[in-house]
Amino acid sequence: MDGHSRNADPEELARFDEAASGWWDPAGDFAPLHAINPLRLDYIERRAGALAGRRVLDVGCGGGILAEGLADRGAEVTGIDLAERSLEVARLHALETGAAVTYRHVAVEALAEEAPASFDLVTCLELLEHVPDPASVVRACAALVRPGGDVVFSTLSRTPKAYLFAIVGAERVLRLLPRGTHRYSAFIRPSELGTWVRASGLELAHLQGLGYNPITRRYFLGDDVTVNYLAHCRRPDPQSP
């Protein structure tokens, strides 16, 4: 294990490891991730361009739901995480499906030192609100993408509406997620993420909200970024005219 592993909450890692066997159960604890994955993939491809042939890094890949989706669309994918049992599940599932994904147990900060500017696209979804120092993750993602490349983040905004929808609604009422999945204090406002993004040398190109309709039980992309949101960033290319 590298020295950068300190930017991880041991309780969070333990919780994800405990639930690791359910990563690929579409009706289990990770059902919302399965439901939103097509939306996330469509957003990434719409903003960053076709994925075929692109070198992509998925930071905080968990059991590989997004990573396999990226690979299915033709990307050359590397997934990294610090939850070892989740990575074991991801590797096993990739063997079963034939998904061309390379998984590594490494901190994003350590990989940024090892392989800077190595990826065309870096994705970091549903992770920033689970680490002690999210700004450090943003900096590492910025370092890992090549000039002219794209970075996509997703997280939850620290607003009363997000507390009502993501914690009270999703965890306690609708039980879409296990209780304790999220801590409101760790949610990140778009303005805060934007500050970290710009300080890391990235440009914030686009924000997109992700909502849920409890009547139809369907997720959708929209303009409201006060609960869940995605952020598309670009690393400027000094050589570009």
TrEMBL record:
Annotated GO biological process: methylation
E.C. numbers: 2.1.1.222, 2.1.1.64
Catalytic activity annotation: a 3-demethylubiquinol + S-adenosyl-L-methionine = a ubiquinol + S-adenosyl-L-homocysteine + H(+); a 3-(all-trans-polyprenyl)benzene-1,2-diol + S-adenosyl-L-methionine = a 2-methoxy-6-(all-trans-polyprenyl)phenol + S-adenosyl-L-homocysteine + H(+)
GO molecular function: 2-polyprenyl-6-hydroxyphenol methylase activity; 3-demethylubiquinol 3-O-methyltransferase activity; polyprenyldihydroxybenzoate methyltransferase activity
InterPro entries associated with the record: SAM-dependent_MTases_sf, UbiG_MeTrfase
Swiss-Prot/TrEMBL keywords: Methyltransferase, S-adenosyl-L-methionine, Transferase, Ubiquinone biosynthesis
Pfam families linked: Methyltransf_23
Pathway terms, separated by semicolons: Cofactor biosynthesis; ubiquinone biosynthesis
UniProt: S-adenosyl-L-methionine binding residues: 40, 60, 81, 125
Function: O-methyltransferase that catalyzes the 2 O-methylation steps in the ubiquinone biosynthetic pathway.
Entry similarity comment: Belongs to the methyltransferase superfamily. UbiG/COQ3 family.
Protein name: Ubiquinone biosynthesis O-methyltransferase
Species for this entry: Sediminicurvatus halobius
Gene: ubiG
